[in-house]
Specification:
The protein is α+β, with helices and mostly antiparallel strands. It has 14 helices and 18 strands.
């Protein structure tokens, strides 16, 4: 696409994204990411390819209902924001300049089916407006008031330049093929045998020898160097707070801020030097306590347990810190906590956890908090800007087996949250029920990975994580075809139970490959294929018994 075509396509897509997401800022970001994703896949892509990416991005980010928007208070589009996700999608596409036939083609449905979906959305809008039938021409005119500005286009140009530089292809060396043969005879039906070359056995022996020497040397060095106390293991479980206990805890316990201030004074760390790595409230312990991990400016680390009601120190450890955390440029703790409350839509809440860290690229702060109704919120923010990274909420009520949706229903709802996909059009890599939620992870044919958390009671989406592909896949055979190749190589059929645990596009020695891992009948498999030819460059199979 040349610069003129890029601009024209952006101007056509932008109003759709605004109505879909309810935010001009989010819409601009979605348009930029859609262009970057489409151009990564194929530099010769067209507007339909970009529209596919935009719909995928918007579908993963759109809220079930838009509660906050930067549209003007008198905008005729405001009633449309009250529609569910599918209704906003269908009307925003119908009102766009792409045309219904193009939209139907992009969504891989017939024009008649798209017309039915649009009519349904209009009926929903009529109901929301108390029976007032909307004027399509007035809506279309209001729709065009979301104008793609010069500032937006400059941001798009800069974003594409940065993406092009980041994804410059590396030299592709010749891929070494791992010669592993798969044998199956009548006498060993259902069993897999693997023949490994002699050089591989020798290499394995050398690796074992090096490993043994490393273990011995590490043991000797450890005996000479005193160890500091081990940090407590990070617990993934947070004790539920009974709504009836909420008022008591709020009135009787130290707040998170008070607990940190008490810990700072107990350790003698100055206000300017104190960096709180982690603060967790254990309200159901006996006695209830705060667990606090604190760094000072001199390289010392403190672990404390503070009585949550009385504030006295129950346990205390001090040792030389083996890590640091630079908080220059961070928002204040009060500002971050205020942002957390605004994100959760709460005026007041009980903070159960605050944890700050750097994941290698971003400074992040993660919070867990609960409200008076017992809902558990998890919010993760970027520490310097306060930007939302992840958000989820869990309802307090338990879900019985008879009340919750089935796994197959959860799969279908997860797919519909992303687009119009059927189960056989994706590769599921995780289908898990835990607590009160389903966790569904799957990969599309182009390599885009989704992880979606659903409420088991009604199938409503809690969280959506998407990992787009950064490779040029314009000449790729597709992950579904790669799946068929590896199953055929393994001697497995569609009738056999195969559970995939990985299906992704990855980079290996400068070349993009398909990485697939799966299990069947007590065997585990790891396979790599070239994305453009399907040529196998690695195949491993071993028994799990």
């Amino acid at each position: 696409m040349n610069s003129t075509e890029i601009r024209q396509t952006a101007e056509k897509m932008y109003p759709t994204a605004v109505l879909y997401l309810g935010s001009r800022e989010q819409a601009r970001a979605a348009v930029i990411e859609a262009f970057a994703a489409a151009l990564r896949k194929s530099p010769s892509c067209g507007e339909k390819d970009v529209l596919v990416q935009l719909l995928r991005i918007c579908q993963s980010r759109a809220p079930e209902r838009v509660t906050e928007t930067d549209l003007s208070a008198d905008s005729p589009l405001l009633p449309l924001l009250k529609l569910p996700v599918s209704g906003r999608r269908n009307l925003s596409l119908h009102l766009s300049d792409f045309g219904d036939e193009t939209v139907a083609e992009v969504r891989q449905i017939s024009p008649e089916e798209f017309a039915q979906k649009t009519e349904k959305a209009m009926r929903q809008l009529t109901f929301l407006q108390g029976g007032t039938v909307p004027d399509p021409d007035a809506l279309r005119q209001a729709f065009r008031t979301s104008v793609w500005s010069e500032e937006d286009h400059a941001a798009l140009t800069d974003g594409l330049a940065a993406a092009e530089q980041q994804n410059a292809p590396a030299a592709e060396p010749a891929a070494a093929v791992h010669d592993i043969s798969h044998k199956k005879t009548a006498g060993t039906a259902g069993k897999k045998t693997v023949a490994v070359p002699l050089w591989a056995v020798i290499a394995l022996g050398l690796c074992i020898a090096v490993l043994c020497v490393t273990v011995v040397l590490t043991s000797l060095l450890r005996n000479r160097t005193p160890e500091h106390p081990a940090l407590p293991a990070e617990s993934e479980e947070t004790a539920d707070v009974d709504p009836e206990e909420y008022a008591h805890i709020q009135s009787s316990f130290l707040t998170l801020d008070q607990a940190q201030e008490t810990a700072r004074k107990e350790t003698g760390v100055s206000e300017t030097d104190a960096v709180f790595i982690s603060t967790k409230l254990k309200p159901t312990a006996e006695p209830p306590y705060y667990e606090i991990d604190l760094l000072d400016g001199a390289g010392q680390e403190y672990l404390l347990k503070l009585h949550a009601e009385q504030g006295n120190v129950l346990e205390s450890q001090q040792f030389k810190a083996d890590h640091t955390l630079n908080t220059d440029g961070w928002l204040s703790a009060d500002a971050l906590r205020k942002q957390v409350l605004e994100t959760a839509g709460l005026k007041d809440a009980l903070f159960l956890k605050e944890k700050c860290a750097n994941d290698g690229t971003l400074d992040l702060c993660k919070y867990e908090l609960t409200d008076a109704h017992g809902r558990l919120y998890t919010v993760q923010l970027e520490a310097k800007s306060g930007a939302l990274v992840k958000y989820s909420v869990e309802e307090p009520q338990s879900v019985s087996q008879s009340d919750m949706i089935t796994l197959e229903q959860a799969k279908q709802k997860a797919l519909s949250r992303v687009g119009d996909y059927e189960p056989d059009q994706v590769i599921f890599t995780k289908t898990k029920f835990e607590g009160r939620v389903y966790m569904i992870a799957f990969t599309l044919d182009d390599g885009t990975q989704y992880t979606i958390e659903l409420n088991a009671a009604d199938g409503m989406t809690n969280t959506v994580d998407v990992h787009p592909v950064s490779a040029d896949t314009s000449h790729a055979i597709g992950l579904l075809r790669a799946r068929d190749i590896v199953l055929e190589t393994a001697g497995l059929t569609d009738d056999e139970t195969v559970r995939f645990t990985k299906a992704k596009v990855d980079r290996n020695n400068g070349a993009y490959v398909y990485e697939l891992e799966f299990e069947n009948s007590g065997y585990e498999y790891e396979v790599s294929l070239k994305i453009d030819t399907g040529e196998m460059i690695k195949y491993r199979a071993w028994s799990l018994t």
